[in-house]
């Protein structure tokens, strides 16, 4: 029986570049940091960025997996990230289900979304 998702790993060939993006641009606070990985934790969920010897260059198929980042004010976060040079694929837009979504890429080309859930 599966109880839920324990974590997500994003593999990279360039850990310093992704570490800088996830901590500097997204403002995530590391739970643990090593020369081979950095981890972020929210409750029981872990997001880990780690170096992998089999990864070369940027993501060739960036839409295969998408991480959704929960935010309280999508417009504020979007504006902050734009100011830090983030290239957005989609500005904040309201979805038919009542929440807001905005899509962007990290420096490896992985596609992520800001998601503001309806109150």
Number of strands: 8
Strand order of the biggest β-sheet:
1-4-3-2
Total helical elements: 2
Strand content: 35-45%
Provide the low-confidence segments as ranges: none
Tell me the Rg in angstroms: 15 Å
Counting copies of identical and different chains, the oligomeric state is single chain
Largest sheet: 4 strands, mixed
State the separation between the terminal residues, measured CA to CA.
Answer: 31 Å
| SSE class | alpha/beta
Question: What overall form do the CA principal axes indicate?
Answer: globular
| Element order: H for helix, E for strand | EHEEEEHEEE
Q: Which percent range fits the helix content?
A: 10-25%
Mean pLDDT: 93
Question: In summary, what is this structure?
Answer:
This protein is of the alpha/beta class and 119 residues long. The chain has 2 helices and 8 strands; from the N terminus they run βαββββαβββ.
Describe the structure.
18% of the residues lie in helices and 37% in strands. It has helices at 15-25, 74-83; strands at 7-12, 32-33, 37-42, 45-51, 67-70, 88-94, 100-105, 111-116. A 4-stranded mixed β-sheet has the order 1-4-3-2. The protein is globular and about 40 Å long. The mean pLDDT is 93.
């Amino acid at each position: 029986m599966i109880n839920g998702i324990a974590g997500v790993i994003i593999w990279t060939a360039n850990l310093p570049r992704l570490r800088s993006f996830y901590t500097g641009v997204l403002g995530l606070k590391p739970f643990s940091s090593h020369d081979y990985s950095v981890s972020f934790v929210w409750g029981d969920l872990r997001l880990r960025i780690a170096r992998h010897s089999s990864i070369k260059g940027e993501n060739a198929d960036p839409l295969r997996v998408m991480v959704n980042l929960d935010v309280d004010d999508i417009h504020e976060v979007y504006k902050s990230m734009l100011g830090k040079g983030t290239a957005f694929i989609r500005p904040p837009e309201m979805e038919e289900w009542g929440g807001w979504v905005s899509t962007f890429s990290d420096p490896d080309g992985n596609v992520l979304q800001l998601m503001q859930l309806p109150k």
